[in-house]
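agent> fetching stored inputs for the iron/sulfur cluster docking request
agent> found them:
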Amino acid sequence: MGFYRGTVLRLDLTRLHASTEPLNAEWARLFVGGKGLLLRYLFDELPPGADALSPENPLILATGPFAGTVAATCSRLAVGCKSPATGTLLDSYVGGSFAPELKFAGYDLVVITGRAPQPVLVRVRDDEVEFVPAEGRYWGLETSALERLVRQEMGPAAKVLSTGPAGESLVPYACLSTDQFHKAGRGGAGAVMVSKNLKAVVVRGTGAVTAGDTPADTAAFTRDVLRLQSTRVLTADNAWTYEEGTPYLMDAVNGSGALPTRNWRTGAFDGTATINSTTLLRIRSKVRACTQCPLACRQVHAFEGYVCEGPEFETLGLCGSNCGISDLAAVAAFNRECDELGLDTMSTGSVVALAMDLCEAGEADYGLRFGDPGAYLEAPRLIAAREGWGAELALGARALAARRGRPDLAVEVKGLEMPAYDPRGTFGMGLGYATSDRGACHMRAFSAGDDILGGDGPADSFAGRARLIVDQQDFSSVAWTGVWCANMALDTDVLGVHFTHLWGRATTHEELMTTGARIWNLGRLLNLREGLRRNDDRLPERILRMPHPDGVAAGKTIGAEAFRESLDEYYRLRGWDAQGVPRRETLERLSLTDAAFRHRAEP
Ligand code: SF4
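agent> prediction call returned; pasting tokens
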């Protein structure tokens, strides 16, 4: 079985027992790896309606078939479970070097179930698995201290996937960390790990991944993939990654009137000059790369007393402009605190911006003010410890706004705080957020690329957006079986070169997109089973009805009627009924014909 190691590692924390089983080959054929296999296993492992923080919610680590090979950017790990932030499925992705190491240790997937009687850390060295008591040694440590300690014990090549103090407080937007600065950021996987009394999974592997059954197969794959490095990877399309990284988006998004500013009151920030790429390049000390990636987009900056990988664009937007903060050192310090504590910067920045808005509206008195770094810099530690006013902010934007009687001020979808592209400056992103399977996400569909970053799409209309969003969601779903990085310009030609070797036969654009659609529909079935309804495919009131007072998108409103029509069109194109339930013929077309799926479809 080339590319795959053919083995799933099961960690039953309740019994402190490890076992292995063969990877389900039929599922690997239909769902490939990464997101696809993650959702297929999650569908079976998660009892319907289980609480996200209960022992019944599995935490699944899924590699892609190309992790551990030379395929560019395919070193990413998919992490999944039911999300404590949204109650929907969660698939979250992290780069670095953990996924290849897991393959080298001999595993395609790890399925973690139950709850340990005492806090533990799991050590995996090839086929040896140890459950190590965590209390008094690992529990309570911040992410970089934990990694340092584990590497002292297991050697510098050990890879660590861990949760920080915020996870230990079960903050619903606690993330998982690896290689210190790499985060499976969104949706609260850090809290789910802790709900299992698990601090970290550490892996060291000494095996290899072959690209076929014979050395000649591996040589042919390597030759074809390396050829792509010059024609499709190290090209002008991707030059922004190593030249500037994601901060280049600050000026572009601000110039389009789509940069979240002061809790989404407007889409134009007058302080970007001090937190944009030009300013960051002056203090850039080097760039770093994930394993298998020649693009090296990770910008390392030197601040007084410390270095920081980042801040990335989403952090600059949501912890910078959306909090009215134009002091780069303050944004970087906030970023560093979140990294050390294991908090998702996107949700943390959004929640703090909301709290600032509540303070300015007289609904709360946390001492937070837009543009003031004072209490802002205290927020991550108070949230992570659920201490003082941090305990309220730890609830997340939706619950915090509801508690303070101002649900209109929360900017989230399905409970996940919105990324840093304001749909009033790029309407298509609104449809993408509303229909995203894990709550507001900019990665599954990114119409902003068409609308505002050099494409010719209509930024202030839904014309053609439903088709675009469906196609982009299907494409990202198949690309994340790989698991390719969304930072790299990709198409089905590039995927096809890899899949031809994986499947041992030629493939087509249509076949790859059908695979993506199968995975997207599987996610929909899972979400419907967990209680998701059409009303959850929504946009926040502030985004839907309140126009910006200034900037390029000034005066524009999306409007409830235009959004409803666009959602109807999206459902039609998906082959779903008016309530967003996949029709029987849709499931049959996508080979989602197991009895477990069929009865979820309309009668
Ligand atoms: S483009 Fe950046 S984030 Fe993506 S794999 Fe490469 S180094 Fe990692």
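agent> quick read of the result: The two ends are 39 Å apart (CA to CA).
agent> awaiting further instructions
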